[in-house]
What we know:
Blueprint: E1 2-6, H1 11-23, E2 26-30, H2 36-43, E3 47-49, E4 63-66, H3 75-83, E5 86-89, H4 90-98, E6 102-107, H5 112-124, E7 131-138, E8 143-146, E9 153-158, E10 172-175, H6 183-186, H7 189-200, E11 208-212, E12 247-251, E13 259-267, E14 270-277, E15 280-287, H8 294-307, H9 312-321, E16 330-334, E17 339-343, H10 348-361, E18 367-372, H11 376-381, H12 383-390, E19 395-398, H13 414-419, E20 426-428, H14 431-440, E21 445-450, H15 458-469
Parallel strand pairs: 1-2, 1-4, 2-3, 4-5, 6-9, 6-10, 7-9, 10-11, 11-12, 12-13, 17-21, 18-19, 18-21, 19-20
Antiparallel strand pairs: 7-8, 13-14, 14-15, 16-17
Amino acid sequence: xxxxxxxxxxxxxxxxxxxxxxxxxxxxxxxxxxxxxxxxxxxxxxxxxxxxxxxxxxxxxxxxxxxxxxxxxxxxxxxxxxxxxxxxxxxxxxxxxxxxxxxxxxxxxxxxxxxxxxxxxxxxxxxxxxxxxxxxxxxxxxxxxxxxxxxxxxxxxxxxxxxxxxxxxxxxxxxxxxxxxxxxxxxxxxxxxxxxxxxxxxxxxxxxxxxxxxxxxxxxxxxxxxxxxxxxxxxxxxxxxxxxxxxxxxxxxxxxxxxxxxxxxxxxxxxxxxxxxxxxxxxxxxxxxxxxxxxxxxxxxxxxxxxxxxxxxxxxxxxxxxxxxxxxxxxxxxxxxxxxxxxxxxxxxxxxxxxxxxxxxxxxxxxxxxxxxxxxxxxxxxxxxxxxxxxxxxxxxxxxxxxxxxxxxxxxxxxxxxxxxxxxxxxxxxxxxxxxxxxxxxxxxxxxxxxxxxxxxxxxxxxxxxxxxx
Length: 470
């Protein structure tokens, strides 16, 4: 078949493009701007162009895969629609590819990429194996795609934007977080929780649902879901706010969940913890060169892996050899006098987790953070939370908002967030100005944070910082 991708440079879209290309189908596509990821796809032999030009669309397209991030008024979108070519959203295609498989889907407002990548690595390193469509570039794989035709397991990141995850009917599911996000889609937190509940209840009754402890609560702290009916014995009460699949909870903070971490400590830059499971305690599990928040992701991934039949030795080996995900607490410089970490954090809770991890690993160090907000609506809806979290940095540098699929909203700017911060150590900069300012601030730890095109600044900033170290 001849597949054409609108928005092929997206992390989820590129995994699908790679899958069909690897399978031997013809794959081509359009994206608005070049990126390191599109460079990789081009090197793999996938034809991509960057001008919105219907004349460059192949004449014999069989199926178009598109992402909601591409506006419907794009010339190519309109031309393809007028042609009458079959068009499917990325989420629909992912749903089709996972149907009939033992799909392990990881959803959540944050933590899903690291958790799904960790699950994929654990299973891939064990005899059961797996395929995977990931929302980030696994350092172990060097890719966001893993194909294993001999395994029935397929690990996917379940995206809540545009209710995409409702296309999935997983064998096992994980929900890592339900903090308010994408309110332009859901309207309010309550409706967002309803969508997560629907996703949870699409889990196979013969599989298992893993929930971070406390996630199904409203902003007022009230329980949104009744766990009592089936939490212990599978349950048969199907009222609107009940969970239908067998459910287990997990946490890294507390001792009341089914799976939880205790005795968390750090040594030589690695983190050790003991894992309490319903079957006993696994002592001295190790994750290497990572953030404190990855302990919680490791607990979730371990719970899934054990449920898939891994023994403790396979689990230990998998956790210890997990190298992480690009742009997820990604060390770019790790020297005695300077540490530089790049992270995809773009939600206040993610920012807080990243900053807390840095403070835990580097106590007393001077931390400079560069943040690029992602989306006007998210910045508008969560401005107070962004300001509250970012002001915990020693120096805050903000870049202009990355619009992605959105048009500007009057009055919503990075300056709006800066004005809400109760600190004088704050700056608004272009990327070139960042390169000049950061070395002058004499940092011990540098963070780049955000989900937009700040990744293009990362190699330049790393080079600048290394030059200043000489």
